[in-house]
Structures are given as C-alpha cells and as structure tokens.
Amino acid sequence: MSNSRKFFESLTGAGKSIAVLTSGGDAQGMNAAVRAVVRMGIYVGAKVYFIHEGYQGMVDGGDNIQEANWESVSSMLQVGGTVIGSARCAEFRAREGRLRAACHLVQRGITNLCVIGGDGSLTGANLFREEWSGLLQELVQSGRIDERSAECNSVLHIVGMVGSIDNDFCGTDMTIGTDSALHRIIEVVDAIMTTAQSHQRTFVLEVMGRHCGYLALVSALACGADWVFIPEMPPTDGWEEQMCQKLSENRADKKRLNIIIVAEGAINSSNKPISAGYIKDLVVRCLGLDTRVTILGHVQRGGTPSAFDRILASRMGVEAVLALLEACPGTPACVVSLCGNQAVRLPLMECVQMTQEVQKAMDEKRFDDAVRLRGRSFENNLNTYKLLSHRKADAELPHAEENGGEQEEGPHDGPFTVAVLNVGAPAAGMNAAVRSAVRVGITEGHRMMAVHDGFEGFAKGQIKEMGWGDVGGWTGQGGSLLGTKRTLPAKHIDKIAEQMRIHGINALLVIGGFEAYLGLQELLAARGSHDPLCVPMVMVPSTVSNNIPGSDLSIGADTALNAITGTCDRIKQSASGTKRRVFIIETMGGYCGYLASVGGLAAGADAAYIYEEPFDIRDLQSNVEHLREKMKTTIQRGLILRNENSSENYTTDFIYQLYSEEGKGVFDCRKNVLGHMQQGGAPSPFDRNFGTKIAAKAVQWLSKRLKDFYREGRVFANTDDSACLLGMRRRALVFQPVTQLKEETDFVHRIPKEQWWLKLRPLMKILAKYKTSYDITDSGQLEHVTRPRARDTEIAITI
Asked: What positions does the entry give for ATP binding (predicted)?
C-alpha cells in the first residue's frame, strides 16, 4: 500500500442516481445494507431510489421505483427480512422484461444499480449490464426514449452484495444473513438439548442448504453434533453402521443425548438424497433409541439480524456506493465482500463461475474438489469438525506407536503433558476453546491437564487430567467452567514452576485476556531462574474488550456485541413510544473503545465516546445540537454510547446531566449502565467457532514445537519464538512471539497502539449524518478470485 492516503471527500455523487434492490430469497441484514446504501448515497450528494419487489418492481415501474430520503431508512437496521420487498421474477429473464426495466431506469436517470441477492440475482444483473447499450438502442428505435436520454445514460454500473443465508457464494467468506441464520439454528439446538437430555433422546435436525452444507457444518461444529450430513462431502459407503456405532459409543460414555444435523440437500456417494426421516428410521431400527426429527425451515430466515450481519451489511453498503462512484465505463460488475475482516471487491462473474464449478464438481462426484472450491474457510471448518467429532481408539494415537517402536521424537515415557488454563475475566466461547484444545490434544497423543482458577489455582496445584468425555457439551456453555482469575503469576512463580515440575508439564496453553498476555510475559521473564518454565507456550485471546495486541478479534467480543445490540434495540423501541428521548448507554471495555464503537455501528447510535478518540466540551455541545436538529424530523429518539473509561471527567453521569440540561424543552434523557450482562450469556455461533478453530490450531502448533524442542529425553524451550500469541491479523491466523508484541502495546491503558476498527468509526458518523473524513486507501482495488491450490496453508478463520 502506498504512503499517500486517499479520502472519500474527493469522490462526489452529484448528478448521479443510484437504485438499490433486494432480490431472491430474503436474508437478515439486507435492510442494514439498504440503509447504508441510501445514507451513503445521499451523503455524497447522489439521488437514491428504492426499487420495491426486486426485479419485478423494475419491470413494472411506476410506484415501485421511489426516491428515498434519509428518514426512509430509519428503524430498518434491527428488522429482519427486507422491507423493500423481494420477488422472484420470470419476466426479467426474458429480453422484453429487461427492455421494460431499462426504460423505467432511463426515465429516472438511474445508471448505478446496487443489487443485494444470491448468485441468480447477480448473474441477472450482469446480463442486464452487458445488454444495456443494445436495450437502449431498441428503446430509441421504438420511440420509448429519445436519443439524448440514451446518450446521458449510456453506461450501466452494477455492484452486488451477496445476501444469502446459505453462504453459498464463492469469493466471500461470509454472505449477509449467514451469521443470523446460525443464531437461529443454535438457539433451537440449545433449546432442544435440554429436552433431549431429560429424556435421553436422539434428535435429527434438518437445516437449510439445498446445494451448500455451510449452515449444517458450522452449526454442527458450534454445538458439537455427533454426526453431520452435507452435500459437499457425502458419507462413505457403510456409513449407516459407522454412525450407529458412534451413537452407541457416546451413550456408553454416559452421554444422555445425540444430535445429528442434516442439510436439506444432503446426498450419499451415489448422489441420492439422505432425508432426516430416513436417518430417524435407521437409528430407531438399529439402536432402538427414542428419536425425533425437527425441521427448522423458514425460522432460519427470520428474526432480527445479528450484530455481525448488521456490521457486515453496513460496511458492504458503504463500500458498494464507493465502488459505484469510482466505476468508469470499462469497470466490470463487481461484488463487495469480506475476506477475513477486510472489505474486498471481486469481479462478479468470476465469483459466479466459481460458485457454478462447485455444483459441477458435486454433480460429477468430485467431492474433494467441491470442498476446496468452497474456499479456505469451508475447508477449515470441515477439517476441524472431523478432528473434534471422531474419537480415536487408543491404538490409533501417535504415542501408541512410540511406545512400541523407535523413540526418536517422542518422550521416552509416552505422551507429552499439555496444561490448559483460563486467565482474566470470563468471556463467552472460552469453554468451546478448552473443549477443542483437550480433544485435539488427545487426538495428537498428549496428556491434557486442566488448571482451575487461573495462575492462582496453578500455584495451589488445582490441576487435573481431562478426558475426551469430560468436555462433552462445553461449546454452548457461557463463562468459564475451569474458573478464571485476574491474578498474575509473578508473585506465585516459584510455586507455579514447582507444580509444572510435579505434573511434568511440557507445554502451556493460556486462554484469556490482557492478564493472560501480561502473565505470559512474566513467565517468559522467569525462565532464566526456573527451568520448568522453559517449555513451549501459546496464548489464545479471549476477552469481551477485544484489547489484545496481535489480534484483530478476541473470543467473547462477538457475544458481548450481540448483548449490547439486543439491549440497544429494546431501548430504542421504548424511546420510539415516548418520542423525544435520548438514551446514554455505558459499555464495558476498559480503555478499549471496540464495544462502544462497533456496538454503536450495529445499533445505529448517534455517537460513541471512546478513550482512543479524545473529545471535549465542544464535541459534546455539537452532539447535543445535532440531536436537537434530529428531534425536528420524524426520527424523535437518540442513542449515545459511552465506553466506561473514555474520559476521567466526562463521566456517564456528567454527560447525562449535560444532555438533560441542554436538551430541556426539546428532549429528555435516560441512562443505562449495561455492566456484566456483556460478559454473560450463551456464546454466539461466531465465538463458539472462533474459539474451537483457534484453540485447535494452537494445540497443533504446540505439538510441532514439542517435537522441535525435545532433546536428550526432555523438552527445553527458551527462545522468544517458543512463547507466542495466536491472533487473527487481517485475513489469516498468525503466531507472534509475545516479546515482539511489546512494541505494539500501550501497557498503561491495556490496549494495542494501533487498532483496525478505528477506521470503522467514520461509518457510524456518516450513517448518523455527521460530516466526517473517511480514509478509503484500502478500498478500490479490484482483486481476483483466487483458485484454491490442492493444499492451501493459510487458514481463514471467519466463520
């Protein structure tokens, strides 16, 4: 990237008209995308139009195409589905239908189209663009438009956003609606688990996904399902027997329930469908287990969008408008999407072709190719599921061979011993990470030890071995089942070293927040005087504050964002009844403004006060003035978020009193401190999967390092690269020595010196109608869809 920064003030929408439509199946988050397109379009000076009822509305014209204003999209953010309507349109497939649609657009001077839908909708849009000049000529010849209109509207620009709960579009890690659909599925699975447990039942759940097994696979990973059926990876012949054997083994392990998840498009190796009913009959016939079928159906499309989908859709909507403003006549139709946590633009037809190739591979029974073409994220999910769901027999474990054969790599007395502990405040998803670590560790042939109550428990010797079954059912549990404390190890270092010696601990996995990061630094510093600490160590970030250097995301932050967003929705609803009311809400995060800023974007806040962006009395005054103006419109409510440590003197009480005084006669105020509800609750699907995958990767790294550092009958590691933090950086998971991360850390305020999400703050301000500057240096490069190689080493973590 060049040093010259690029700001969007240089782009203008003056004289341009943009139309937005939603097409195909609805998906939660479509409204957030529509809202972002409308507001960003108006903000840059363009005219923006709604096209109601998808392509049907474009073909029919009339009142279906309406100019939108700022207030038209108020209160849309938290609504599921699409408020501008969607319809499948047979007429648009015929040239005559597209001719009518072109005529209706030209009449209004619309030459920029933003289409939110699946691959069918986007393919239709591309065809429309390719035919545009021919359609215009035909309209001129038939006298429906004049030459001048054809000349002024000679080029049609198209930008697509993928709205599809199936996540079946290649080139994008996540499509709008997928995360919300996973929320619906997991809510149902969590509810079913309690009743299944009571009656020792087996449940077969059918989820959506006619051609794509993403929802089935990820929900199976997120709830620890016993078996999953997806179209991309049919079970091998003889699966009936294998599945029944696994179910009965689980019951023998005192497991009171079984969950089997089936994608609606599940097939066997002969491409014949596998139905939920068939699986139920099979289980009843072979095992005699009390078995029930639940078909989730359209529940998965419904409900309010998750925080992730709102942020994704808002970012994509703004990016789509930028792409349209920057488009020139030769620019191909593109799709704006997410890769890791980076917004990217990809040629629309490259993505569509790759998506069609997946189906072709499945039809031709090239299932390995189908999985690879789905992308790194899908492949990684599948590999992690396989790793965690199938318990290996003792004879299959790596150390079984070591005991009988040559012992060149492994320790002389059998397996390595790996300890896992939670440090810092509890965060949802910690338990999923512990479960994953324990099971992957056992599969790798290690002895897995759990340390209770953090470093404090470590010093006291609260350490016990964990078996495969000990972590069953942990993925959906909130908080920390191992117990966690903020205590740092320095003052207990002698006792900790002694406990490591007593238990023969060869490696350490620390799952936690900033205290875990500091703790690892302290353990490292004590290596010189304590030999038992000279072992490989790895930290996995887990804190609601998302304030760990070296990682863009932490386990627990997504669950906290959903808690904040859900509460803000309810508060906004109460305000819409009373009118002229402003709510001031305090969020957690220490000095890190992630929750306040990203929560503000997801909840549609008017402002978010954070420590990283200093503010003074003039800023507060201008915010009050902004709200006084807002109260003159039809949107008579306000939402202000304040990070708990954003300012020593401008406290939540102070801001509440200031707003109350300055708003007298125009609006009244209420305040809410959200507190510890942000740390509680069942983990979101994102946190379950992020925790599961990142912990699995951490243990695999430890296995490799244990072999590297095994010399002369013992493990000895005292290099900087033997103590790492595993973090998500832009598009990949990266191991970084903690000593190197010191330079990136503000230790006084417990935050990284640079934080990626600060560049999302202007989006919140733009969507709340504030004039601001927005750095778009990272935008605008049209990338190409990368064809997956036979083995792709980089791992995508976005679920």
From this structure: 25, 88-89, 118-121
Residues 501 and 613 reside in one and the same domain: no
Q: Which residues are annotated as a binding site for beta-D-fructose 2,6-bisphosphate?
A: 486, 543-547, 581, 588-590, 644, 670, 676-679, 750
Looking at residue 253, its pLDDT comes to: 77
Q: Are 135 and 71 within one domain? A: yes
In a domain, 751, yes or no: no
Give the model's confidence band at 334: pLDDT under 50 very low, under 70 low, under 90 confident, else very high: very high
Tell whether the model's pLDDT for residue 31 goes beyond 60. yes
Query: Is the domain of 219 the same as that of 258?
Result: yes
CB atoms within 10 A of CB 413: 11
For residue 361, the Cα-to-chain-centroid distance in whole angstroms is 27
Q: Which of 661, 679, 697 is the last residue of a domain?
A: 679
User: Which residues fall within 8 angstroms of residue 369, CB to CB, at 6 or more apart?
Assistant: 361
Q: Is 166 a catalytic residue?
A: yes
Q: What does pLDDT average to over the chain? A: 91
Q: Scan for tokens 């599945």, then name that residue.
A: 243
What is the C-alpha separation between 48 and 306, in angstroms, rounded?
26
Residues 6+ apart with CB under 8 A from 411: 506, 710, 713, 714, 715
* 501-516 pLDDT, tens digit each: 999 999 999 999 999 9
Task: State the pLDDT at residue 392.
Answer: 65
Query: Which one of the listed residues 60, 63, 146, 166 is annotated catalytic?
Result: 166
**Residues of the binding site:** 25, 88-89, 118-121, 164-166, 201, 208-210, 264, 292, 298-301, 486, 543-547, 581, 588-590, 644, 670, 676-679, 750
Burial class (CB within 10 angstroms; exposed 0-12, middle 13-18, buried 19+) of 194: exposed
Structural domain of residue 446, as residue ranges?
Answer: 417-555+683-738
* Residue ranges of the binding site for substrate: 164-166, 201, 208-210, 264, 292, 298-301
Query: How many domains, the chain?
Result: 4
Phi, psi of 194 (to 5 degrees): -70, -40
